């Protein structure tokens, strides 16, 4: 590991210790092998004059929920140092009492909640304190003789302590262990199976002490020929695999009791891990560090040909694990896995939303690498399950169950939207994401691949008239998110006005292909996945021209009428599988790609109206926007219309001909 310190960047911090703290925290956070998703914390001690004019010694400690890779000054909770130091002298302190006292010690009630390691940071008598969960160090500690190996690597200037629970218990352990220690002789502390602390009066030295300790561990792995070890493999998916992914995702969702996202990783590293002969054993030994259990469960499930029995067995074993350690006062979490090793096909990850899915994937990828290191060094050995259980069912985590915020209505659901680059399609994507769904945005416009910056959206360039392109987009959706629950079939084409006698065959064919046949092909491709979806729903965007056609629009109106008839038949056929199919009939939606100011002006003039009058020429005198249509479409996909199928909903501000 190399230091990322840059003198020019550091100079911008000047003598501001908090700015220096932000800088080196980001250096740590940008290295995933040190810090994974909240698995580390940093602090700095400084004096500050309060509103009464008194100078106070303050511990600025990372706030809970902040990411070291992107943290800024606001992410550090300013706490009264003397209060935290006195808390360390207490013989005992419950975690809930500790968190209350930490919050009370904050100088600003609006500050983030201090890290659970704040007391430990307070009693280390150096200005800067860095804490990481370095993969290499933890992996070595998870091997037979790991403690002795680390002692030999670091010598007497690193204090090595056995694992205890984070929070007050850990702070108290170090408080007691260092009563007769000369801190000036120490460069760091290793907490077995947990992580590393380094410290110094200077930000650079504390950071580079961390880099040096981790580098020494990585050198040891290199010297033993295991640092670059990684079993790799190659797997080319077939259609049945994607259906199996959707099936496993549905099994997990049913166990959790709500929709879950899933991701199939068949990268060479994941595939290589899945082909290991002893993967059944090593996947069941435990996490890299105990805090990972909050994201990944204690073990992974290994799936071969029968995912039903494997998932059921995991669920039963998890319940037994809970019963073995329950003190009678705990609430059992869901019994579903978060990581699956799919024999010879890679790995699967499960989580309620895409943000947390990324966390699970990152942790699993680091864990499988560390497992292979440890196996090559003599054997992977995680903490006993009781220690893991105590962290998984930590008092603070149980409290979160009682106070957790209400999830967005569509969290965990997976949607496909066609024609997603503009107009109604784009509005649907944005609203579905706002309601918590993960969305595959499909469009023939290449811009769709990059125009949605949210990680809940994957944009796929797709020609809906090409069956191979449609199949590829659907399979990518399933690989990325796990299945399909919602289909918004929106892509379309409005040909130039022409009387029937003047209608060219190619115009009619194109309209039928884009406005009818492509929707049939898309639905046909999605049905097997929708059958394994969570409360699946399909909404097809038709047109006001179905109930109220106009002259000159035969090619468009007829195709949309056929499309609406398809909706009715699909509702009849798919209802037995719980799949709802409905249609919307928008009209005069002017913020779409087919309208511009010149066209609007011409239309208004033709009707003797201003543009504003033309836009609101409906019964309600309201402009119908893409967002208005999206609101109705997303509502049809939700619980509000859970008993509605085969319906046709006009979204036109009231059209006298339709009425």
List keywords for this structure.
elongated; 659 residues; Rossmann fold; alpha/beta; L-fuculose-1-phosphate Aldolase; 7-stranded parallel β-sheet; 7-stranded mixed β-sheet; 24 helices
CATH architecture of the largest domain: 3-Layer(aba) Sandwich
**Main sheet summary:** 7 strands, mixed
Q: Tell me the overall shape.
A: elongated
Rg, nearest Å: 30 Å
Q: Specify the CATH class of the largest domain.
A: Alpha Beta
Q: What is the CATH superfamily of the largest domain?
A: Class II aldolase/adducin N-terminal domain
Poorly predicted parts: none
**Helicity level:** 40-55%
Q: What is the total domain count? A: 4
Instruction: Summarize model confidence as the mean pLDDT.
Output: 93
With strands numbered from the N-terminus, the spatial order across the biggest sheet is: 3-2-1-4-7-6-5
CATH topology of the largest domain: L-fuculose-1-phosphate Aldolase
How many helices? The count is: 24
Measured distance between first and last alpha carbons = 71 Å
Count all strands and give the number. 18
Secondary structure topology:
Blueprint: H1 7-11, H2 17-29, E1 41-49, E2 55-62, E3 76-80, H3 81-87, H4 95-104, H5 118-123, E4 128-132, H6 135-141, H7 146-154, E5 158-161, H8 168-177, E6 188-191, E7 195-200, H9 203-223, H10 239-256, E8 261-265, H11 268-274, H12 279-282, H13 293-296, E9 301-303, H14 307-325, E10 339-342, E11 346-351, H15 354-376, H16 385-392, H17 395-403, E12 414-418, H18 423-434, E13 438-443, E14 457-461, H19 467-481, E15 486-489, H20 505-530, E16 537-541, H21 554-574, E17 580-586, H22 597-606, H23 611-615, H24 626-637, E18 648-651
Parallel strand pairs: 5-6, 9-10, 12-13, 12-15, 13-14, 15-16, 16-17, 17-18
Antiparallel strand pairs: 1-2, 1-4, 2-3, 4-7, 6-7, 8-11, 10-11
